[in-house]
Design a protein that fits this description.
By secondary structure, this protein is an all-beta fold. 0% of the residues lie in helices and 44% in strands. The chain is built from no helices and 18 strands. It has a 4-stranded mixed β-sheet with strand order 2-6-5-4, with no helix packed on it. The chain has a 4-stranded mixed β-sheet with strand order 8-12-11-10, with no helix packed on it. A 4-stranded mixed β-sheet has the order 14-18-17-16, with no helix packed on it. A hairpin with an 8-residue loop joins strand 4 and strand 5.
Length: 234
């Protein structure tokens, strides 16, 4: 007689692991990675290994493993990409809009930048001509290791609020004898904007005794007016 083999065939079916959530998964540099885990079709315990450093851009692997009662072990992996898509934050030192008087010195206060990737530098572009009235833009930019660019700008207004300085040629008070001749010596003017002219107004009647005023006026390109006067006593 041939007896039948009643032994149980071996279990050769491996667990099927299902990864929960995104695969691959993406997390922003400096953010928090929360692993969604995985399940096994036979209810086996799923363990995981591997770590994600969210402070360092790169590709990371999380491995999930499940073993059934027969010792069959399955694994599955998730790829986690730590990416940097956030530009540095550029912060101005000082005001975003400043005013400088024509002819004065513009002091650049610069800017600082912060970024999740670590230390970043600031590049300054643009110039300010304090000898020319106008509005100027100074730009500040910072680029991180992933190529993200953060920017900020400052407006510098060069203005002229200072009147020309008018200087008399000769004395501020002169005396002329009745019937004599008054010789006008004029005046000169200087201004930060450059060359300015002087306009003379007022008359002197040397045939009439009295006190006369001659006025010297200079107006610059910004409309600032400087004056001086001379008293002429006949």
């Amino acid at each position: 007689n041939i007896s039948e083999d009643s032994s149980t065939p071996p279990d050769t079916v491996f667990p099927v692991i299902t990864i929960l959530g995104d695969n691959p998964a993406t997390v922003e540099l400096g953010g928090t990675y929360t692993d969604a885990g995985a399940t096994s079709d036979g209810g086996e315990t799923v363990s995981s290994s591997g770590s994600v450093d969210t402070n360092t851009v790169g590709t990371y692997t999380i491995t999930y493993s499940a073993t059934d009662s027969a010792g069959n072990t399955s694994t599955a992996t998730r790829t986690v990409n730590v990416v940097d898509t956030t530009a540095p934050v550029v912060t101005l030192n000082g005001d975003a809009e400043v005013t400088v008087e024509l002819g004065d010195t513009y002091i650049e206060l610069g800017a600082t930048a912060s970024d999740a990737s670590g230390t970043v530098t600031v590049v300054i572009t643009g110039s300010v001509d304090t000898d020319t009235v106008g509005s100027y833009t100074v730009a500040y930019s910072s680029t991180d290791a992933s190529g993200n660019v953060g920017t900020a700008t400052r407006t510098v207004n060069v203005v002229d609020t200072t009147a020309p300085v008018v200087t008399l040629t000769g004395a501020a008070t002169v005396t002329v004898e009745l019937g004599g001749t008054y010789t006008e010596l004029g005046a000169t003017a200087t201004d930060a904007s450059g060359t300015v002219t002087v306009v003379t107004s007022g008359t002197v009647d040397t045939d009439t005794v009295g006190s006369y005023t001659v006025t010297y006026t200079s107006t610059d390109a910004s409309g600032n007016v400087g004056t001086a006067t001379r008293t002429v006593n006949v």
